[in-house]
């Protein structure tokens, strides 16, 4: 259980959708924490010590106990701080929340990324097709709901921040149309609703530098392939 | 909560490590269920209806409510039937159990499979290396414990049934040495302990037909590549 003498830290980088998930959860729960900005080109001793397996961010550290993997962290936060629940209390609804969160990681993250940051035309086409197919499942799943979690946002919404904020940015850079209001009107409405939620709005990274970062990466990829 | 009028079904195939995970959980909890054997070449209406997203087994159906994804199902079973707990009660230990279960799925399943069922030599070497590296992390993690879960087996053990039972079989077929008692003595001891546990022993599929099935698949792959 949470006590008054909490030591809560997050090792991350600004601009990572996985780190952002944890930040949304922490903000929703109203938890104060120290943010340690990592340099992924020169990883800190702390990161290597706390996540020797993957050596990746985010790493969440609660009273010196480290946890890696964004969705594992989000569940831990939800189980440790009980206010503003992130997962539903009903076991079946919890299972569905876990299913869709995993779906987003397995079927959308990689496919969208490879749609954008791929030189090979065939590879891109395949990934574009997979991205669209996966997004269609989410379009059906959001139905007429305000959030995936219902009236309040939850685990699936947090997992899907990648779709709301990152996908529009990287598709613009590559001149692709993956996630648009025409193709996925309900999911698009959800994304607007979610990003204007006070909790989410406050933790989203600034768009312009991130856009410039991804654009440079995309252009360097194109240049290398010529 | 569980009631007396339970309808519990499992759509699966004998010989799938993912289906076996669910069977171990059900056996541990002492839950009676109907098993529907799927033909994956000609999938049933029921499977397509209950898992329209992935169209894969296992699908667990509890009182007409379907759940897919083996680890999601195992957590659901643990939350619904409280006897013989599968996940620890402490949130931090739960997070670690989820972390290692995910690690097994992300880092071992695919790498071992591609080590065996790959024609390309470079691709095989890369995957063998990744498999060994990942197994080493589990060798360190099991330490001197009887099970990953401690004195009783839990979520990580269930996730790792693939390593105990399937890996020795497919590596033998391909003439590879991935998971051996010399390379990973502690993990090997764990695997023997786990497979001789009465609950696990009773749900493991018969080895010989499965070995023949994988061998035929391996030989057909080799033949196709000539």
From TrEMBL, chains A, B:
Residues 6-85 form the GST N-terminal domain. Pfam families: GST_C, GST_N. It is an enzyme of class 2 (transferase). Residues 90-213 form the GST C-terminal domain. It comes from the Eukaryota. One of its GO terms (molecular function) is glutathione transferase activity. GO terms for cellular component: cytoplasm. GO terms for biological process: glutathione metabolic process. Its EC number is 2.5.1.18. It catalyses: RX + glutathione = an S-substituted glutathione + a halide anion + H(+). InterPro entries: Glutathione-S-Trfase_C-like, Glutathione-S-Trfase_C_sf, Glutathione_S-Trfase, Glutathione_S-Trfase_N, GST_C, GST_C_Tau, Omega/Tau-like, Thioredoxin-like_sf. Keywords: Transferase. PANTHER family: GLUTATHIONE S-TRANSFERASE, GST, SUPERFAMILY, GST DOMAIN CONTAINING, GLUTATHIONE S-TRANSFERASE-RELATED. Belongs to the GST superfamily. This is glutathione transferase. It comes from Glycine soja.
């Amino acid at each position: 259980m949470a006590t008054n003498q909490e030591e809560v830290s997050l090792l991350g980088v600004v601009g990572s959708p996985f780190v952002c998930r944890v930040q949304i959860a922490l903000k929703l729960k109203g938890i104060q924490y120290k943010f340690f900005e990592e340099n992924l080109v020169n990883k800190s001793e702390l990161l290597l010590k706390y996540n020797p397996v993957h050596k990746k961010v985010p790493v969440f550290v609660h009273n010196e106990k480290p946890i890696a993997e964004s969705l594992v962290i989000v569940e831990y936060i939800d189980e440790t701080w009980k206010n503003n629940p992130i997962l539903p209390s009903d076991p079946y609804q919890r299972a569905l929340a876990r299913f869709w969160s995993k779906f987003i990681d397995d079927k959308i993250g990689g496919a969208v990324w490879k749609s954008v940051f791929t030189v090979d035309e065939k590879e891109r086409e395949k990934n574009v097709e997979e991205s669209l197919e996966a997004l269609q499942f989410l379009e059906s799943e959001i139905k007429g709901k305000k959030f995936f979690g219902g009236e309040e946002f939850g685990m699936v919404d947090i997992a899907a921040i990648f779709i709301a904020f990152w996908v529009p940015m990287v598709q613009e850079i590559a001149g692709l149309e993956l996630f648009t209001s025409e193709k996925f009107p309900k999911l698009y409405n959800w994304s607007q609703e979610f990003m204007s939620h006070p909790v989410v709005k406050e933790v989203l990274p600034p768009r312009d530098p991130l856009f410039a970062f991804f654009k440079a990466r995309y252009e360097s990829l194109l240049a290398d392939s010529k």
